Amino acid sequence: MADALNLDASQLTLVGYFPKTTAIPEGYELPAHVKEICTVSGCINAPEGWIDHWLHNELAFYDSPAKAKRVVATTTSKLPWSLFAYRMLPTRFDKDGAKPISLPTLDVEPLHGSFVPIGFDAVSKSVSFCFECSPLSCNYLAQKVPVNEFCLVATFEEAVALAKRCASEEPEPGPYYLFEVLRAIG
């Protein structure tokens, strides 16, 4: 088990979908093997004006792929878009440790077979209603923590360790939340 709360991947809960571009912005200092940024962070690669559509759920994700695609249809970006699904651990990581939380009741459309898991992320949420920064990409922690080509950690255990580290060190103000990132293929 991951810690005294008996954290395990079976506790991950689907909380929504979100469209993002995955290009690495010019000047970012990430390891050479990182080819895309697929982090949950809301501060990079999100559609401009996404929030103004008011189609998001209580956690600032979309309840269906169709709603997420509606937002992309209004963007002027010429970059390709990927659709992601997020499964969240109902746990908050802060300086005092890991604590269980209750997730809001959401009406998220179940995953279908076109989504594949690509890694895990730990994301801060301190002042905004949405999830804010992933230290892996936003603070270049990917230079110190082993990440895959998507700028994510590979396993649930690594993600728990990352969330604990971020909560303790606060590269961005915490608390932190753990996500599994899935990507639509095809």
| Residue runs with pLDDT of under 50 for 5 or more positions | none
Q: What's the mean pLDDT score?
A: 93
Strand order of the largest sheet: 1-2-6-5
Rg (C-alpha, Å): 15 Å
Q: Give the termini distance in whole angstroms.
A: 35 Å
How many distinct helices?
3
Helix coverage percent: 10-25%
* Main β-sheet description: 4 strands, antiparallel
Structural class label: alpha+beta
* Number of E strands: 6
List SSEs in N-to-C order.
Answer: EHEEEEHHE
**Which descriptor suits the 3D outline?**
globular
Q: How much β-strand is present in the residues? A: 15-25%
Descriptive account of the structure:
By secondary structure, the chain is an alpha+beta fold. The protein is 14% helix and 23% strand. It has a four-stranded antiparallel β-sheet. Strands 3-4 form a two-stranded antiparallel ribbon. It is globular, with a radius of gyration of 15 Å. The termini are far apart. The mean pLDDT is 93.
How would you describe this structure in keywords?
186 residues; alpha+beta; 4-stranded antiparallel beta sheet; two-stranded antiparallel ribbon; 3 helices; 23% strand
List the helices and strands and how they pair.
Elements: E1 13-20, H1 65-72, E2 82-88, E3 91-94, E4 97-100, E5 115-124, H2 135-138, H3 156-169, E6 176-184
Antiparallel strand pairs: 1-2, 2-6, 3-4, 5-6
Could you give a quick summary of the protein structure above?
The chain is an alpha+beta fold and 186 residues long.
